[in-house]
């Protein structure tokens, strides 16, 4: 297979030509069988597994991501997504029978799942394998063509994703283009049938605006400030272990990571000490030890490192003090795992998504005040609550809104492939994973097939007008 340079691949004329060629393929794939789609998904899964060591090397080269995190958060989710589709695709593709209504007696009705057509998938930098190839599995399962744009911020992983995609697919089915933001802009100018974007809310708004010009449907997996609540009844050791893992995996560069924590004042100090012990056990006690830890990823590049350090400096200027950590090494793109206390209300770190290993801690007394504060902000992608009090748990889940939630755990709503994963409003639009991912890339077409029409028979007999008048009179009685 000929090797295509990134510069050549990113040529707008070439993107247009590939997009136009995929039109004929998209029409052909409408009639593709479950077996044909499964064969392609299996081939992609096997290629991902075959490149395991290469994924390790590329992830370390891009941001020193530990091998364990590559296994758990990159390779495994793609394989699970693929295996789920392989097992269930025949069932997913089967038309869903719908019972007739009074006016459609004698007719057969069903929902038919048809491919959306030509799809665009724009992947992020934080989990580039998982969040680029996972949606691709869903697009293939639904019978679409796709053009994929991996993140330019992880060049080694991006190059390997390109290699795998080009080995598995022909360009008229799945094409891939590397490059900077101008490549994404050129692709977004094309009239795709569906766009699947994972990234920040700010860029998500731009993607949605571009899609609106062609009335393209979108799935937007975004982010935001996901809160965590730890009440006075919580298992503090469990809450410390979970939250420290969820926050500092991938050095905090996770869209569903806890972004700030409300801790009941009566247990705050004890919980922080559990966190300290957990962090020292996992990564070491000093800045030097943690910077050299093979279990702690670094920030993706110098620009993002400077951005996170800027949030730290601004928080300090607004009165914050580091309970744990606080050190930085910008030359090595390293921010020490940090817990902040007494952050002033005007600090940027309480307004902007952190996307780094810094966690503000806020003590509270009244859970109603916490709920009010959460509701005063944008709807988050995730919400976590640690409590043994079912009334408190129910109150939080009833009176807040978030894309997903966990009780006495964190991140598991993403790893559970049978749940819909997605945000709401500022944190996203639409769902992904498993059957929900298949439906995201499918059009649910309502179909009615007439066999014997009870209504038509009544029309012929002149009975329908009288029946309609009787039905309307009955309905009006309840108005």
Automatic annotation (TrEMBL):
Highest rank taxon of the organism: Bacteria
Family statement: Belongs to the aldehyde dehydrogenase family.
Domain Aldehyde dehydrogenase: 7-443
GO CC term, one of those recorded: cytoplasm
Alphabetized PANTHER family for the sequence: ALDEHYDE DEHYDROGENASE (PTHR43570), ALDEHYDE DEHYDROGENASE ALDX-RELATED (PTHR43570:SF20)
Lineage, opening ranks: Bacteria, Pseudomonadati, Pseudomonadota, Betaproteobacteria, Burkholderiales
Active site residues of this protein: 221, 255
Protein name: Aldehyde dehydrogenase
GO molecular function, one term: aldehyde dehydrogenase (NAD+) activity
InterPro entries per UniProt: Ald_DH/histidinol_DH (IPR016161), Ald_DH_C (IPR016163), Ald_DH_CS_CYS (IPR016160), Ald_DH_CS_GLU (IPR029510), Ald_DH_N (IPR016162), Aldehyde_DH_dom (IPR015590), Aldehyde_DH_NAD(P) (IPR012394)
GO biological process: aldehyde metabolic process
Alphabetic keyword roster: NAD, Oxidoreductase
Organism: Rhodoferax aquaticus
Keyword Oxidoreductase included in the entry's annotation: yes
């Amino acid at each position: 297979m000929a090797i295509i340079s990134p510069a050549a691949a990113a040529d707008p004329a070439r993107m247009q030509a590939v997009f136009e060629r995929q039109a004929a393929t998209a029409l052909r794939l409408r009639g593709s069988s479950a077996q044909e789609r499964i064969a392609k998904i299996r081939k992609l899964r096997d290629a991902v597994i075959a490149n395991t060591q290469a994924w390790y090397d590329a992830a370390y080269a891009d941001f020193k991501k530990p091998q364990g995190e590559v296994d758990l958060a990159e390779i495994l989710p793609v394989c699970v997504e693929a295996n789920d589709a392989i097992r269930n695709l025949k069932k997913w593709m089967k038309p869903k029978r719908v019972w007739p209504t009074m006016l459609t007696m004698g007719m057969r009705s069903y929902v038919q799942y048809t491919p959306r057509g030509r799809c665009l998938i724009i992947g992020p930098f934080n989990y580039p394998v998982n969040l680029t190839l996972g949606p691709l599995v869903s697009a293939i399962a639904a019978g679409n063509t796709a053009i994929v744009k991996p993140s330019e911020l992880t060049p080694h992983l991006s190059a390997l994703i390109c290699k795998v995609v080009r080995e598995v697919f022909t360009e008229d089915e799945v094409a891939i283009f590397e490059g900077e933001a101008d490549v994404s802009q050129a692709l977004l100018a094309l009239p795709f049938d569906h766009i699947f974007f994972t990234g920040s809310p700010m860029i998500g708004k731009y993607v949605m605006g571009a899609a609106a010009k062609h009335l393209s449907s979108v799935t937007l997996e975004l982010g935001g400030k996901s809160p965590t609540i730890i009440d006075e009844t919580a298992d503090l050791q469990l809450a410390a272990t979970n939250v420290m893992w969820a926050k500092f995996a991938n050095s905090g560069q996770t869209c569903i990571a806890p972004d700030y924590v409300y801790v009941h004042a009566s247990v705050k100090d004890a919980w922080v000490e559990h966190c300290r012990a957990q962090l020292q056990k996992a990564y070491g006690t000093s800045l030097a030890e943690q910077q050299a830890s093979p279990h702690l990823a670094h920030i993706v590049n110098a620009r993002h490192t400077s951005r996170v350090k800027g949030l730290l400096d601004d928080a300090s200027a607004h009165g914050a003090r580091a309970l744990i950590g606080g050190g930085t090494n910008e030359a090595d793109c390293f921010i020490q795992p940090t817990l902040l206390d007494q952050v002033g209300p005007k600090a940027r770190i309480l307004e902007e998504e952190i996307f780094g290993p810094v966690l503000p801690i806020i003590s509270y007394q009244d859970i109603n005040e916490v709920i009010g504060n959460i509701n005063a902000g944008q709807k988050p992608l995730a919400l976590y609550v640690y409590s043994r009090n079912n009334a408190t748990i129910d109150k939080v889940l009833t009176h807040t809104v978030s894309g997903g939630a966990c009780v006495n755990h964190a991140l598991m709503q993403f790893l559970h492939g049978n749940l819909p994963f997605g945000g709401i409003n500022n944190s996203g639009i639409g769902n992904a994973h498993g059957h929900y991912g298949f439906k995201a890339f499918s059009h649910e077409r309502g179909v009615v097939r007439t066999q014997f029409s009870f209504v038509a028979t009544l029309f012929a007999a002149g009975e329908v007008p009288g029946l309609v008048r009787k039905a309307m009179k009955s309905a009006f009685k309840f108005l």
